[in-house]
Each structure stands twice: as C-alpha cells, then as structure tokens.
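Deliverable D4.2, example record:
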Amino acid sequence: MLKKTLYWICAVVCLWTAAPAFAQSLAGLGAINGTVRDASGAVIPGATVVVSNPSLGIRRNLETNEAGLFAAPSLPPATGYQVTVTRQGFAPWEAKEIQVLVGQNVALNIILDVQAQVQEITVTDSTPVVDQLKTGVSQVVEDRDIMNLPINGRRVDSFVLLTPGVTEDGTFGLVTFRGVPGGNAFLTDGNDTTQGYYNENAGRTRISSNMSQDAVQEFQVQSSGFAAEFGRAVGGVINTVTKSGTNDIHGTGFWFFRNQDFNARDRYATFNPPERRNQAGGSIGGPIQKDKLFYFFNGEITRRYFPLASSVTNPQLFTATGQFIGTCGAPATPQQCQNAIDYFKRFFGQVERNADQNAVFGKLDWRPNERHSLALSGNVMNWFSPNGIQTQATLNTGAGVGNNGDSSVRTRFARLSHTWLLTPTLVNEARFGYMKDRLYDAVNPQLAPPNGLLGQLSVQGQGNLGVATFLPRVQPTEDRYQFTNNLTWLKGRHNAKFGIDFSHTRDVVDLLNNGRGTYTYATFTDFARDLTNLDGGKRWQRYQQTFGRPKIDFFIRDWNF
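Output generated by the structure prediction step:
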C-alpha cells in the first residue's frame, strides 16, 4: 500500500514540476499564455487580461496571478486574436492580429509602462516567429500552403512530406518518420482517426482522400518529443484541425480536370496510360447567430477513369500481343482448344476501371456565453472503384483480370466537444469521437470466367487465370469510440495539465483465403478438355481449397492518463 501511494505521489510531482512554462502541446487546439511585468521587470499580479477573437465570437476575461502569469488554453486555431491588458496606474497594452496555430502555445512577454508616461501601447502581429516553449520537433502546414501548393489528387496528408525527416517508405505511398516505418498517429480535431488494423490513415492510400482538402484549415506534423496526450505513436503524429464558420460569410468553389495529355510521359515507357480525372466541390461558412452560432459545410466529388492495360507474359503459351504459341491437341478436340484459347484472350487488352468518390463535411460551433464553447462535426466519405483492386497502369502477369475486383471504402467521422472555463485559471476540455472505416472488396462479374467457375486457375505454370483467391473480403470494418477529458490549471508559476483518454476499437475481418479453391493444370490440353467438359472427367493435377470460419471479431480497449 505504501509503495502504491509513493508511486502516485511521485507521478503527480513529476507532472507538476514538468510544466513550469506552458510547454504543453494541444490536440486540435492552441493556446495563448503570457507574463505581465513593469519596466523594472517586476511581475504585476491582478492585471485584467482579455483574450478575444471578434471573428469567432470568442472572449475570455482573465486576471494575472501572483506570479504575473495568465493562460488561455484550448483555443480554436485561427488568425485575428487580440489580447488587451489593463492595470490601474499603468498604460493599457493591446496586441492585435495574433495567429494561433494548431498545437501551438503563443507566449507573450508583456511590459506595462506607467500611465503618466505612455497613454497606450498597441502591438500588431505579435506572434513570436520562433515558439520558444516548444520542446519537440514539429512543423505546421498552414491553410495558404494547402491551398497554393500543387498536390497530386488533392490528398491533403501528402503535405506531410514538407516536414524535415519525413520521407516516403516505398509502400503504397506511406510515410516514415526518422526512418521508422509505420507506427504513425492521425488526429482530426483531436480525435484519433488512425485505422488501427493497418496502422494507416483512415481509408488507407487507395482512396483520393478521406476528407476534402477544402475542409482542412491546417495540420501540425510532430516528429518527436510530443506530449503524452498524443500517445500510441512510435513514428510521428499528424494533428489536423478542420475549418469553422465565422461572423463573416465565406465560400469557395472549384473544379479540377486532368487527363493523359497533361501527364508527363516516362521516356522509357511504351505508351502514356489514358486517364481522365474530374474533382469538383465547394464550401461555405458563416454565422447563424452572430458571436454565438456558426456553421461550415463542404462537399467534394471525384470521378476518375483510368483503364488498365492487361497482358500475360509466358513464352510457353502466348506472345506479348496475345497470340497463342502453346500446344493443344488430342485428346482435346479442335473446338475445345479454340475455346480455351478464346478464354485466354480476355487477359489481353484494356480492362475498364473507374474510381468514384463523394466526401461531405459539416460543422457547427456554438458559444452560448464566454464560459462555454461547443462544437459538433461530421465527415462522410464513400469511395467505389470497379476493377480497382489493382491500381497499376499496366500488368503483364494476368493479375489485371485474374487477381482483380471491385474495391470500396466507407469512412465516417463524428465529434462532439465542450470547452468550459470554470475559473480564469481552470479550463476543462471534453470531447467524444466516433470513427468507422470499412474496406470491402468483391468479384466483378465482368472479370469472372464465362463458365461460372469462380476459383483460381494455374495452367502450365501460369497463374492468375481465374478469380482472386482473397475475394470477397471485408478487411476490416473498424469502429472506434473515444472519450477524452483534459483539465488545465494555472497555479503560481506552474501550468499543470491532467487528462484521461479512453478508446474502444473493434475490428471485424471476413476473409477466407482460397475459399473458392485453386485448380492447377499441368498442360494446356488438360485445361481445354475441362473448360468445355463433354465426358465429366476431372483432369486437374492438383486442387486446393480452404475451409473454416472466415469471420474474425476482436476489440481493444485503451486507457491513458
């Protein structure tokens, strides 16, 4: 019992002493902190501090404590913050156009002059260029970068590569931090939207993006030294914040078109793959009730046509153009041989392939008074790609037909948050988040063999001649429920932060690999005789099939303090 008590005492002391200078990161939020002194350097307690943002309807009335400190944590990232400081006998001090970035603690060192000497001091754009309170390695990609820099497919998390130490790992467009593959955490407005099964961003890399680029305000990329509240990451943390409505009505509209004529051609490629891509959408945000209730809405559609060039490279059976050079004869009839040759022709030529995506995001912000701030947001993304399991432009292994199928992804985010200013020195932030990510692949009837055989085939050493052995599959359907509560307390020269984070993640996988069976034929003649079977014979060399319960259901409950 004594050891347990000493453990908790040490934990609290370490937490308390580790936060003397506001140096805490914030998931999806920012903060403004400061120290007020007179010209001699002595701290000024009891000064009135007002932190406000007229565009967002935010106003916090604070007071410096006995150490001359004030803190305004859990602020929505935005530009246009103002800080005013007044104290009897001193000239008023004011700073305008302060920008608060996601995960940033803006520190202000304020000097008040005597009233008789100076009437008023006004500072414009007082945000420090260098965040002196930051202990880790991080970088913020702001809205102007997201909107102005070119990006392939408008996948906003690709901007992560702008951060030093972040590179592609060569696996389906994933990124690595400091050479550590995988193990990254993706946060959206503070909630964990990492797909835990593959440890990737929700929706994975096959989709265009799980959220429209126009719905993202900015994001912070943390490479190392991040706070405990970001946990569960051994690589890096991508801390994204979405846009909100303001007292002014703003909107955007866009349409992007791309085809093969605009694509650079590889000098060693034999042809430039055909492609047509249209991305269109828009957003609008504004006030429902000035200074109280705000809305933001965004929608985006993507329509892509990118057919696949399929072939089979097997010098024993076919030329590169699809001409049969193999051997087929008795006891197979000429018609049986011709039927088998015609069957193989389906593996040469163009495979029709599309990718359609719809993404919708909405957000409501409500500030009934100065002490309470609530936000409700949701994001829905549907992606469907006929024959889109294989994403390469060309495939010469037969996989473009025999190992392909329809792919679909459905992603859902929802978030409810409440920030409560209990006292000028005590702020509580609570939020609930939900995420659903479903990846489903199925056989495309157009790619199935004409004889209705839905197994996989291997003929004379050439595989991928039937239907993919892993279809259909749900891998996975993932649901996550998350609750987080953080309490920030300014006491003397210390700014302490306490929190709890609970996450319940459930995954369902429905996959029976090779459940339809695989037929292996030693010769083309044997395959031809079975393709149009006239005598009921079975001439395969080997048949393999998997049996069992295909569905796996498991969950993880994660508690963090």
